[in-house]
Amino acid sequence: MNELSKACIDEANNSMHSAINFLNKELEKIRAGKANPGMLEGVKIDYYGTPTEISQVANINTPDPRSIIIQPWEKTIIGAINKAILDANLGFTPRHEGDILRIVIPPLTEERRKELCKAAKSEVENSKVNVRNARRNVMDKVKKLKDKSVPEDEVKQVEKEIQDITDKFIAECDKIFTAKEKEIMTV
Predict the structure, then answer these.
(1) pLDDT tens digits, 172-182
(2) For residue 59, what are the β-bridge partners?
(3) Which of 1, 68, 149, 167 is the most exposed place for a label (fewest CB within 10 A)?
(4) For position 187, what pLDDT does the model report?
(5) How far is CA 35 from CA 26, 41, 164, in A?
(6) List of residues 6+ apart from 159 with CB closer than 8 A
(7) Ramachandran class of 127: left when φ > 0, alpha when ψ lies in -120 to 50, beta otherwise
């Protein structure tokens, strides 16, 4: 197999691996009933005129599975953090306790668990689309290999290998969803 063929296979592998990594990051944001500092990822406050993530201006801890404690490095921004969490509409309300904010994670109802499963399924479907798009982009390059004097049987072999890689990553998406669904639905 020549260098161009190997480059196409490597590109497919890397692109699809990136889609899986992105899926894992997105699914971490979907809470499964237990406290996780990642639940606040993406929530930004106005810190001296700059949108800044809470993790950049405060310590975020989970002392137990049902609560998150946010301890800002500057006591003056505690109100901004509180407002940012409320504006993010994450489904919980912080309590101001002196120089910290405490978030008690309410137990999930059956209806909310189903909504979270639906959101997780949507993320998985988006990831599958990204994997298929990566396959399509690489397959376009593989078809152009014929013009670069790559034998036709090698092109067919590369196409088959890329399809096998695609199937593997699609199965990985399904496996990740099954695990997340189990985590969400476990009471």
Answers:
(1) 999 999 999 98
(2) 71
(3) 149
(4) 65
(5) 16, 13, 38
(6) 139, 142
(7) alpha
Tokens of 147: 């013009």
Has residue 91 got a pLDDT over 80? no
CA distance 165 to 170: 9
The residue-averaged pLDDT of 104-131 equals: 89
Domains in the chain, ordered, with CATH? 3-29+109-185 (1.10.132.20), 37-104 (3.30.1360.40)
pLDDT of residue 133: 94
pTM surpassing 0.70? yes
Distance separating alpha carbons of residues 11 and 6, to the nearest angstrom: 9
Three-class DSSP labels, 46-62: EECCEEEEHHHCEEEEE
Token pair 């197999």 in the structure block, residue: 1
Question: What per-residue confidence (pLDDT) applies to 126?
Answer: 94
Instruction: List the one residue out of 97, 92, 83 whose CA is nearest residue 39.
Output: 92
Determine the Cα–Cα distance for residues 5 and 90; give it in Å rounded to an integer: 46
pLDDT band at 33 (very low <50, low <70, confident <90, very high): low
- How would you class 115 by CB atoms within 10 Å of its CB: exposed for 0-12, middle for 13-18, buried for 19 or more? middle
